[in-house]
Structure formats: structure tokens, C-alpha cells
Amino acid sequence: MVSFSVLATAVLAVVPCAFTAPNGLTTLINHETVGKQLQARQGGYYSFWSEGGGSFNCNQQGGGKYTCNWSGQKGGGFVAGTGFKPGGSRAVKYSGTYDAKGPGYLALYGWTRNPLIEYYIIESYDILAPGEPWTKKGNFTFEEGTYELYTSQRVNKPSIEGTRTFTQFWSVRTEKRVGGTITTSKHYDAWSKAGMRLGGHDYMILCTEGFSNGTLLPSGTSSITVS
């Protein structure tokens, strides 16, 4: 879906409540999305990380483009994407194709330090399956669409600073899309109004992620170009 052409006034509900799942959400087991090795290559910073069984074939094509083909096994998962180091306030434009089955996301993904925060701006998915319970923090609407806001916490898990306890921030798009512009400052402002404070920006990538979750296994293909 293309971005809305008419600017809407942001609406944000900031009162935390018990976990309320968007459509298609299941809560099963943990997945790991950290320990990635960043490499500076043509078209920006490219990251590929995988664990466990399964076939995860991702390649950077140059010019900000990467492709992935995946078929998972129990205990397996991967994250791949192209982006920026440091991250921060940007208008991230992307286009391409994303055809996924099972748990995983097409998302803008990043980290901050002090405080240590792992965050996702989720654009599309088949099944969302967070490892920890999510707490809803509100929603907001602007010209690029409507997103629901959540937080969660990971305890003694790998991070960009080693094994740590840290918070995750989530913006989940209510109408899925593959292609458009993600204005990160809009999400950062909405998170701040909801009491979700970021730190200093580390890296940020437009990623494809897939992971096994109980009996649910990921599979699919993606071809994404980031600018």
C-alpha cells in the first residue's frame, strides 16, 4: 500500500494496558535477533545473522538491494538487511517484494545505547510471535499510516553490548505494506510521548527476519532495495 497523501493529525494513547495483540499474533517461544556482524559494503551497511537449523540464503546485491530465500527448522532463525550506521532520524525509502509464511517480519530494525533499546518498525508479516509478553502503549496515525505501539523486556539475552537485560520498542503497522517511506522521527516522537525513551543511536537496517516458534516454521522470499 502506498503512503496516504493527506496529512492526518497524530493521535496517541499513552496509558499502558495489558497485552492486546494485533491480528494474526500468537505468543509462543523466544527467538534471538542479536549477535549480528555489520559489514560496510556497497549501498550501505549490510547485516546477516543466523542460528540453528534451516536454509537461510541472503545476499547483498549492491546499490542498497538484498535478497533472501529461507526455509526454517525448529530452533532456527535469521535476520538480514541493509541500512545505516549510525541510525537515527531519517526518511528511509524502500521497495521490493516480500512473500513470507510463518513467524517473522519485514521491519526497520535498530539499536540504541544508554539506554540499551532494541526496536522494530514492522511494515509486514505473516505471523507475529513475540518471545515475551507485549504491553500496549497506544497508537498513532500520520500520513504514512497507523501504527500500534508496544514494549517488551528481554532478560539476560544477547545484545550489542553482550548478555544484558533490555527493553524492546515496537511500532506495528495496522495495514501491511511492502514499499514506501518510513520517517523514523515520527516513531521516535510517538514513542517519547508514550514514555518510551531511546538512547544514542547505533545501527539501523531495513530487515527481513524469520524464526521458528514451536511448531511454526518460517519460509519465504524477499527482494528489498533501501535508499
From TrEMBL:
Active site (UniProt): E118 (nucleophile), E209 (proton donor)
Keyword Signal: yes
Catalysed conversion reaction: Endohydrolysis of (1->4)-beta-D-xylosidic linkages in xylans
Biological pathway: Glycan degradation; xylan degradation
Gene3D superfamilies (alphabetical): 2.60.120.180
EC number: 3.2.1.8
Ranges of residues in domain GH11: 32-222
Top-level taxon of the source organism: Eukaryota
Keyword Signal: yes
Swiss-Prot/TrEMBL keywords: Carbohydrate metabolism, Glycosidase, Hydrolase, Polysaccharide degradation, Signal, Xylan degradation
Family of the protein in this entry: Belongs to the glycosyl hydrolase 11 (cellulase G) family.
Identification of the protein by name: Endo-1,4-beta-xylanase
Provenance organism: Cucurbitaria berberidis CBS 394.84
